[in-house]
From TrEMBL:
Keywords: ATP-binding, Cell inner membrane, Cell membrane, Membrane, Nucleotide-binding, Transport. It comes from the Bacteria. One of its GO terms (cellular component) is membrane protein complex. Pfam families: ABC_tran (PF00005). This is ABC transporter ATP-binding protein. Residues 19-248 form the ABC transporter domain. It comes from Halovulum dunhuangense. SUPFAM superfamilies: P-loop containing nucleoside triphosphate hydrolases. InterPro entries: AAA+_ATPase, ABC_transporter-like_ATP-bd, ABC_transporter-like_CS, MacB-like_ATP-bd, P-loop_NTPase. Belongs to the ABC transporter superfamily. Macrolide exporter (TC 3.A.1.122) family. GO terms for molecular function: ATP binding; ATP hydrolysis activity; transmembrane transporter activity.
Amino acid sequence: MPEAERQTGAAGPDGGVVFRAAGLTKIYETGEVKVRALDGVDIELFASELAVLLGPSGSGKSTLLNIVGGLDHATSGKVWFRGQELTAMNDRALTRYRRANVGFVFQFYNLIPSLTARENVALVTDIADDPMTPDEALGMVGLSARLDHFPAELSGGEQQRVAIARAIAKRPGVLLCDEPTGALDSKTGVQVLEALDRINRELGTTVAVITHNVAIRAMAHRVIRFQDGRIASVEVNASRIRPDQIEW
Ligand SMILES: Nc1ncnc2c1ncn2[C@@H]1O[C@H](COP(=O)(O)OP(=O)(O)OP(=O)(O)O)[C@@H](O)[C@H]1O
């Protein structure tokens, strides 16, 4: 990003660097076949920004999110989280990093069917250092009236919002979302986007959202496009639209 944009905070309300990747490369080897999933990626993510990651299937978006989230190791190159080098950490240290700092949201909600919304969130709040209460976290995502519902009694969008409440209840610095609206229609998807937007604005959480839905780019501070394991472009949105103005 040009220095001038960083100084004006155009990337987000804060502008401090949360993640920095330099020459990040990931090669998957399956038998004889080598896939260069990331090919020398240099990118920064900033404090309090909402970044949307776009790009064709197989372009490396999930691989990047998994490495910055401490779920996977890079083949070469480096990644720092607030100055701590993640690529130098062993699995134990990465697990500690992840527990303390990262919330994940995936396309499928992975809720425990036999537990209510509140109990699903409590699984995390019971083991975190300074968590919100489950009721607070579910309130943030607009589910105060659904605390005692089981997943089967909730719509897809509501289940995804329970998953988001579970991810943010430990107050992570970053929330990494891989296709969070991929299984949802426009109306319920917008409610999920509203929850992510509110978390970004009110808690200052850095939010990265992978999507195939280009309409979502308009709510981001920045749009990062992937192509063939590289960053093809980074665009700063001069103005952003609210999630309820997005349709697909
Ligand atoms: N565990 C793995 N083993 C082998 N190859 C993998 C593995 N994970 C990803 N890949 C390959 O790495 C490349 C990048 O995959 P990645 O999932 O990061 O892409 P993506 O942009 O997130 O795609 P999509 O939008 O379809 O989720 C693809 O060619 C994929 O097949």
